[in-house]
Design goal:
The complex is a heteropentamer. Chain A is mainly alpha-helical. Chain A has helices at residues 4-24, 28-48, 52-78, 91-113, 123-129, 140-148, 150-169, 190-213, 221-237, 249-273, 284-308. In chain A, helix 6 (140-148) crosses helix 7. In chain E, helix 1 (3-24) packs antiparallel against helix 2 and helix 2 (28-52) runs antiparallel to helix 3 (62-93). Chain E is elongated, with a radius of gyration of 20 Å. Classes of the chains: A mainly alpha, B mainly alpha, C mainly alpha, D mainly alpha, E mainly alpha. Chains in contact: A-B, A-C, A-D, A-E, B-E, C-D. The C-D interface holds C 1, 4-5, 8, 11-12, 15-16, 18-19, 21-22, 28-31, 33-35, 37-38, 41-42, 44-45, 48-49, 52, 60-61, 63-64, 67-68, 70-71, 74-75, 78, 81-82, 84, 89 and D 6, 9-10, 13-14, 16-17, 20-21, 23-24, 27-28, 33, 36-37, 40, 43-44, 47-48, 51-52, 55, 58, 64, 67-68, 70-71, 74-75, 77-79, 81-82, 85-86, 89-90, 92, 94-95.
Chain lengths: 316, 500, 95, 95, 113
C-alpha cells in the first residue's frame, strides 16, 4: 500500500479547508492570506495531475503575482474594516446561495464520476501533427499554445493589453501620462534592497531559463514571463527601479510586442505555409521561439503594469 | 489521420475581419494621442467593407464560408465560420460601431498637438476591441475561442462604463465586471465538460456527437446561466441599467445595442447550433418564462424612471426579454420554427439600431439641455425637433408599430406562437408593446407640451443625422425583402432545406 | 526507497497544515503571513520529495519558481506596513 | 541492508522533517510574534536545507543537483531577509 | 480512488464554495476572491479532463492544459482590473458598496406621480 493516496487526500482536504477559510473568514485580510496559501497548495495539486506547466503558471501567476495584488488591496482596504460594504445578507439569501452552491457542486460531482470511459483525447492527434505545424517541439503544451491554438493565444495577449489599458483608465484625468504610484516605501529597508539585488538577477536568469527550456520541457513564455515580471516587481518594491510612465513609448511597444509579432507572423502565414497562422515546416521551431521571445517580453511588462495600477498624479 | 482542410473560398476574409481591429488596437495603443482616433476611424471603412464582402460571399455561395486557421482542421485546430446570421450581424455591428465612432468625435477628439487624454485613448481602443470581440463571436467556430472572445468583450466594455470616473460609474462598472466574470467562468466550466465528454470544442463536430446525457445538460445549463448573466436576462439584469445609463452616450449605444447581443448570440449558437439534436422544449419554455418576466419587469421599471437614459436602459432589459422568446418559438424542427428564427434575428437587429439611435439622441439631449430629467423636457421638442424625431422613430420600433423592424419582429413572433399553438407567448408580445407605448409616450408628452427652454448649446447637425440614420435603418428593416430572410436561413441546422 | 520520501512529504504537508492554524487565529496579520511563509517552504520540500519519488518531469522547475517567489508576498506586505507613516519615521528626505 | 547513500538520505530528510515539525510547534506555541518568527526561520532554513541535502545524492544530473542547491540558497536568502523585515516591523510596533 | 477523481471532487467543492461566497459576500474584494475560487475549481475540472485524456504513451492531453494556462492569465488580468476599480472606488468615495440604492442620487429615483 503506497503512501501516495494519503498524501493526495491530505492535500485535497487542505485545499478545500483553505477555500472554506477564504469564504468564511470574518476578517478581510485573513481571508486574503488564506487565499494566497490556497494558491500555493494548488500548485502542488497541479503537479499531482501531471501538469508541471500549469503548476508553474499557478505558482508564478495564480499564487505569486495575484498574491501580491490581493495582499496590497486587502491591506489597504482592511484598514477600513467591514461595515462599509453594505449590510450582511439575510437568512433567505443565505439559504438560497447555499442551496444553489450545493446543487451546482453536487451536479458537478455526479458528472465527474460518470465522465465517459475511455476519455476522449486529442493527445495522439497532437503528437501526429507535431510532424507538421508544431515541428520539433518536445513540449506538446507549447505546441498547442503557439501552433495549434495560436489564435487563442494571440487574442489572449490582446486581452492583456486591454486589461492594462482598463487598469490605467481608472486613474484620474489629470494624472494621465504619469507613472503609477511606487511599489515600495519611500526609504526602502536595507534588507529589502539586499534581497532585491540578490534575487532579481538570479530570478531573471531562471525566468529566461524556464522560457528557453519551454520548447521541449515544462515552461515557456507564460511561465518565464511571469517570473521575470515578479523579479521586476521585487526591484520596484526595493525602489531600485520605478514603475514607468504610462505614456512611455518603450513601455507601450513592449506591451504590444507579443501580440504584434504574433499577428504579423500569422498574417505572413499564407506566404510562408499557405494558411493564416501556419508556419513552414522547416522553420517552425525557430519561428515559434521568435514569437515566444516577444510574448515573454509582453508578459513580463504587462503583469507588473497590472499590479502597479493606474497613473498617480501626486508627486512624492 | 488528418481530416481534410475545410476552408472554403472567401474564408480568408473572416481572418482579416478579426485581425483588422486587433491591428487597430495595437497601433492605437502604441501611437497614442490623436492617432488612436485616426486609426479607429480610418479602419471603419475597411471593417465595413470586409463585413459586406463576407455577407456577399455567404449570400452568393448559399452556404457558410469556413476558414481553418493554420491549415489545421478541427478538432485540433480552430475553424472560423460565417453563416447567414453571422453575416447579417457583422454588417449591423459595422454600421452601428461606425456610427458610434463618428458620433463620439465631438466628445473624444484630441485636439491637434494636444496631450493624450485618458478618456479618449480608452474610448477609441475599446471601441475597436468591441469590434474585434463581436466579430469573433459572430464567426467563431470553437467554444474555447469564443470564451476568449467573451473575455475580450468584457475587458473592452467595462472600462467604457466608468470612463468618466464618477464613483457611481465605478460602482456600476465593478458590478458589471463581477457579473461578467461569473458569466465567463460559468461558460468555461461548460466548455470543460463538453471537452471531457466529446474531446472537441468545434461546433459542427459537437453537434454531430452530442446526445441527451446528463453531462451535456449540465454543460448546457452552466453555459446558458453564464451567458444569461452577461446578457442581463431577468433576474440577472440588475447590473445593466446603471452601467448602460452612466456610460457616455456613444458607449451606451454600443453597449446596449451590440454588446449584450454578443452573449445572446452565443446562447443562440449553443442551443441552435451545438445542441439542435436535443429535444429542449422544457429548457426553451423556461427561457420563455424568464423572457416574459423580463418584458414585464423591464417595461414597468422603465415607466417609473425619471431620467431619460435610465428609462432607455430599463427598456433594454425589456427588449432583451423579447430576444429570448426566440427559444420557445424556434426550437426544434417544425414548420414554424423558421418563422420564430426570423423573428428572433429581426428583433436583435431592430433593437440594436433603434436603441443605439435612442441612446445617441439621449446624449445629444443631455448635452443640449444640461440634464436628462424627463419632467423638465417641456418645450424641448420644438427646440430639438430632429433629436425628438429620432427618439420617436426609435420608440416606434420598440413599440412594434408598422412600419418598422420592431413591428416585423413582433408580427413574426405572433405568427410563430399562433402557428405553434403556443398562445401563451402572444401575451408578452402584446403586453410589452403596450407598455413600450407607455414609456415612449412618457418621453414625448412633456417634450411636446408648451414651455420655454434654454439650450446650453445646439447639437451639431451631423451628430443628429447619425442618430436619425440609425433610427431610419430600424424602420427600413420593416421592409426587408424575402431574400433577407432566406439569407438568415443559410447554415442554420434544422433549417427548412436541411430537414428530413 | 520511494515510500519513505513520500511519507516524509506527507509528514511535512501535515505539519505545515497544522501551522496554518495561525492563519485562523492570527492575532495579527504578520502572524498569518508567517504561516503562509512556512507553508511555502514546506510546500517546496514536499514538492521536491514527491518529484524525486514519482519522477514527474519538470517539477524541480516548479520548485525553483516557488523558491524564487518565497519572499514575494512578505515583501509586498512589509512595504505596506511602512507606507502608513513613513514620512515621520526616519526624517530622511529623498534627493 | 540499506545502501549507505539511502541511509544518508533518510537521516537528512528525517532531520528536515523534524525541523519543520519544530518550526510549526514554535509557530503555534510561542507567545509572541517575534519568538514565533524565530521558530519559523529555523524551519525555513534548516528544514528545507536538510531535505535538499538528502535528495542531493539522488539527483539524476549535475543540473538537477545544482537546482536543488539553488532552491535552498534562494529560500535561505528569502527567509533570512523577510525575517529581518518582519522583525523590524514588529519592533516598531506595526502589525 | 484515483487521483483525478479526487481532484475532480476538489474542483466541484471549490466551484460550490466560490458560488456561495460570490452571491453572499457584500464586499467586492471578497466577491473577487470567491470568483477566483470558482476559477481554480473550473481549471481543476480542465485538469482532470486533461489527465484522463492520458492516452497510450501520453501522460496527459495537452489541449485542456494549454487552455488552463490561458485561463489563469486571463483570470489574473480580470482580478487586476477588479482590484483597480475597487481601490479607485474606495479612494473616490470612501466606501466600496455595490448596492445600487446606495449610489442613487435623490433626483435619480423613481418618478413620483
Amino acid at each position: 500500500m503506497s503512501v501516495l493516496p494519503f498524501l493526495d487526500v491530505a492535500l485535497a482536504l487542505l485545499v478545500v479547508g483553505l477555500a472554506v477559510w477564504t469564504i468564511a473568514a470574518r476578517d478581510l485580510f485573513a481571508s486574503v492570506v488564506g487565499y494566497v496559501a490556497y494558491g500555493l497548495l494548488l500548485a502542488l495539486v497541479w503537479v499531482r495531475l501531471y501538469a508541471p506547466d500549469v503548476a508553474l503558471t499557478e505558482a508564478a501567476v495564480g499564487s505569486g503575482v495575484t498574491g501580491v495584488l490581493l495582499i496590497t488591496a486587502g491591506k489597504r482596504l482592511g484598514a477600513a474594516r467591514a461595515g462599509e460594504a453594505g449590510p450582511s445578507p439575510g437568512l433567505a439569501l443565505k439559504l438560497f446561495a447555499g442551496a444553489l452552491a450545493l446543487l451546482v457542486a453536487g451536479a458537478l460531482v455526479a458528472i465527474i464520476l460518470i465522465l465517459p470511459d475511455p476519455a476522449p483525447s486529442l493527445a495522439p492527434q497532437a503528437a501526429a501533427a507535431a510532424d507538421g505545424p508544431g515541428a520539433g517541439l518536445g513540449n506538446p503544451i507549447t505546441a498547442v499554445l503557439i501552433s495549434y491554438r495560436s489564435f487563442d493565444t494571440m487574442l489572449e495577449k490582446v486581452v492583456l493589453i486591454l486589461a492594462v489599458l482598463g487598469v490605467w483608465s481608472v486613474g484620474a484625468d489629470k494624472a494621465w501620462g504619469a507613472a503609477p504610484a511606487p511599489l515600495g516605501r519611500r526609504n526602502p529597508y536595507g534588507a529589502t534592497v539586499f534581497l532585491a539585488q540578490m534575487l532579481a538577477p538570479v530570478g531573471a536568469v531562471i525566468g529566461v531559463h524556464i522560457f528557453w527550456v519551454g520548447a521541449d520541457a515544462p515552461g515557456g513564455a507564460f511561465q518565464g514571463g511571469a517570473l521575470l515580471a515578479a523579479m521586476w516587481m521585487i526591484a520596484m518594491m526595493a525602489r531600485i527601479t520605478e514603475p514607468p510612465r504610462v505614456d512611455a513609448r518603450w513601455l507601450r511597444l513592449a506591451l504590444v510586442a507579443g501580440p504584434a509579432v504574433f499577428l504579423i507572423a500569422g498574417l505572413a502565414g499564407p506566404l510562408m505555409a499557405g494558411s493564416f497562422f501556419a508556419f513552414p515546416h522547416a522553420f517552425a521551431k525557430p519561428i515559434i521561439l521568435f514569437i515566444e521571445a516577444f510574448m515573454l517580453l509582453s508578459i513580463a511588462v504587462a503583469l507588473p503594469a497590472l499590479v502597479a495600477g493606474p497613473p498617480n498624479g501626486r508627486s512624492e | 489521420m488528418m481530416p481534410p482542410d475545410p476552408t472554403t473560398p472567401g474564408g480568408a476574409l473572416l481572418v482579416l475581419a478579426i485581425l483588422l481591429p486587433c491591428a487597430g488596437i495595437i497601433l492605437s495603443f502604441v501611437l497614442g494621442g490623436r492617432n488612436a482616433e485616426r486609426v479607429a476611424l480610418g479602419l471603419t471603412p475597411f471593417g465595413f467593407a470586409l463585413a459586406c464582402a463576407i455577407a456577399f460571399h455567404v449570400a452568393s455561395a448559399g452556404k457558410p464560408i469556413v476558414y481553418a486557421l493554420g491549415g489545421l482542421a478541427p478538432p485540433l485546430g480552430i475553424a472560423l465560420r460565417a453563416d447567414g446570421v453571422s453575416a447579417v450581424m457583422l454588417v449591423a455591428a459595422a454600421v452601428i460601431l461606425t456610427a458610434a465612432g463618428f458620433y463620439a468625435r465631438a466628445k473624444f477628439a484630441t485636439p491637434e498637438g494636444g496631450p493624450e487624454s485618458r478618456s479618449a485613448l480608452t474610448f477609441w481602443i475599446m471601441l475597436q476591441a468591441i469590434w474585434a470581440a463581436l466579430t469573433i463571436i459572430f464567426v467563431g467556430g470553437d467554444l474555447f475561442n469564443l470564451y476568449v472572445a467573451l473575455e475580450l468583450l468584457t475587458f473592452a466594455a467595462v472600462p467604457l462604463v466608468c470612463i468618466d470616473g464618477r464613483p457611481e460609474t465605478l460602482a456600476a462598472a465593478l458590478r458589471y465586471l463581477l457579473f461578467a466574470l461569473f458569466g465567463s467562468i460559468s461558460y468555461l466550466l461548460g466548455v470543460a465538460l463538453f471537452y471531457g465528454a466529446y474531446g472537441t470544442l468545434d461546433i459542427p463536430l459537437l453537434a454531430q456527437r452530442v446526445q441527451s446525457t446528463p453531462i451535456v445538460w449540465l454543460a448546457a445549463a452552466l453555459m446558458t446561466g453564464g451567458l444569461l448573466a452577461k446578457t442581463a436576462l431577468f433576474p440577472l439584469h440588475l447590473w445593466l441599467p446603471p452601467a448602460h445609463a452612466n456610460a457616455p452616450a456613444a458607449a451606451s449605444a454600443v453597449l446596449s445595442g451590440l454588446v449584450v447581443k454578443g452573449s445572446f448570440f452565443l446562447t443562440l449558437r449553443l442551443w441552435f447550433y451545438v445542441l439542435p439534436a436535443l429535444s429542449a422544449a422544457g429548457a426553451a419554455n423556461i427561457l420563455g418564462a424568464l423572457a416574459l418576466a423580463a418584458i414585464i419587469t423591464g417595461s414597468v421599471l422603465a415607466l417609473r424612471q425619471a431620467r431619460l437614459k435610465l428609462l432607455i436602459a430599463y427598456s433594454t432589459v425589456a427588449q432583451i426579454g423579447y430576444l429570448f422568446l426566440v427559444f420557445p418559438l424556434a426550437t426544434g424542427a417544425h414548420v414554424w420554427s423558421g418563422i420564430g428564427w426570423s423573428a428572433g434575428v429581426m428583433q436583435i437587429l431592430a433593437h440594436a439600431f433603434a436603441k443605439a439611435a435612442m441612446f445617441l439622441s439621449a446624449g445629444l439631449l443631455a448635452e443640449a439641455l444640461g440634464h436628462d430629467q424627463i419632467a423638465r423636457f417641456a418645450g424641448a421638442a420644438r427646440a430639438l425637433p430632429m433629436t425628438f424625431l429620432t427618439l420617436g422613430l426609435g420608440g416606434l420600433s420598440l413599440m412594434g408599430l408598422p412600419p418598422s423592424g420592431g413591428f416585423s419582429a413582433k408580427w413574426l413572433m405572433l405568427q410563430a406562437s399562433v402557428a405553434s399553438g403556443q398562445w401563451v407567448w402572444t401575451l408578452p408580445v402584446l403586453a410589452g408593446g403596450l407598455l413600450a407605448a407607455g414609456y415612449v409616450y412618457r418621453i414625448l408628452t412633456p417634450a411636446l407640451s408648451e414651455g420655454d427652454i434654454m439650450l446650453k448649446a445646439p447639437p451639431k447637425r451631423s451628430r443628429e443625422a447619425i442618430a436619425l440614420g440609425l433610427a431610419l435603418i430600424a424602420l427600413a428593416l420593416g421592409f426587408a425583402p424575402q431574400g433577407f430572410f432566406d439569407l438568415l436561413e443559410i447554415g442554420r441546422p434544422l433549417a427548412a432545406g436541411t430537414l428530413q | 526507497m520511494n515510500e519513505p520520501l513520500l511519507a516524509a512529504a506527507g509528514l511535512i504537508v501535515l505539519t505545515v497544515a497544522v501551522g496554518l492554524v495561525r492563519i485562523l487565529r492570527g492575532p495579527d496579520d504578520v502572524d498569518r503571513l508567517m504561516a503562509v511563509q512556512l507553508l511555502g517552504t514546506g510546500g517546496i520540500a514536499a514538492l521536491l520529495l514527491t518529484a524525486y519519488a514519482t519522477g514527474v518531469p519538470g517539477v524541480d522547475d516548479v520548485a525553483l519558481g516557488l523558491a524564487l517567489l518565497a519572499a514575494f508576498a512578505t515583501m509586498a506586505f512589509v512595504n505596506l506596513l511602512e507606507t502608513d507613516d513613513d514620512e515621520t519615521e526616519l526624517g530622511e528626505t529623498e534627493p | 541492508m540499506i545502501p549507505l547513500v539511502d541511509l544518508f538520505s533518510l537521516c537528512a530528510i528525517g532531520a528536515g522533517v523534524f525541523f519543520f515539525f519544530a518550526g510549526t510547534v514554535g509557530l503555534l506555541r510561542f507567545p509572541d510574534s517575534l519568538t514565533r518568527l524565530h521558530a519559523l526561520a529555523k524551519a525555513d532554513n534548516l528544514g528545507l536545507g536538510l531535505v535538499a541535502l538528502g535528495l542531493l545524492p539522488r539527483a539524476d544530473s549535475a543540473l538537477a543537483a545544482f537546482k536543488l542547491i539553488v532552491i535552498w540558497a534562494l529560500v535561505l536568502l528569502s527567509g533570512a531577509s523577510t525575517a529581518q523585515l518582519i522583525g523590524r516591523a514588529l519592533r516598531r510596533g506595526r502589525k | 480512488m484515483s487521483p483525478w477523481v479526487l481532484a475532480g471532487l476538489v474542483g466541484a467543492a471549490l466551484v460550490g464554495l466560490g458560488l456561495y461566497g460570490l452571491i453572499l459576500h457584500p464586499h467586492p474584494l471578497r466577491k473577487l476572491l470567491a470568483f477566483n475560487l470558482i476559477g481554480s475549481g473550473v481549471f481543476l475540472v480542465f485538469g482532470i479532463v486533461a489527465r484522463r485524456g492520458a492516452a497510450a504513451g501520453f501522460s496527459f492531453d495537452p489541449i485542456p492544459q494549454a487552455m488552463v494556462i490561458t485561463g489563469i492569465v486571463v483570470a489574473f488580468a480580470a482580478s487586476a482590473l477588479a482590484v483597480a476599480l475597487i481601490l479607485r472606488l474606495h479612494a473616490e468615495s470612501g466606501r466600496v458598496t455595490l448596492d445600487p440604492e446606495a449610489w442613487t442620487k435623490p433626483d435619480d429615483g423613481a418618478a413620483k406621480s
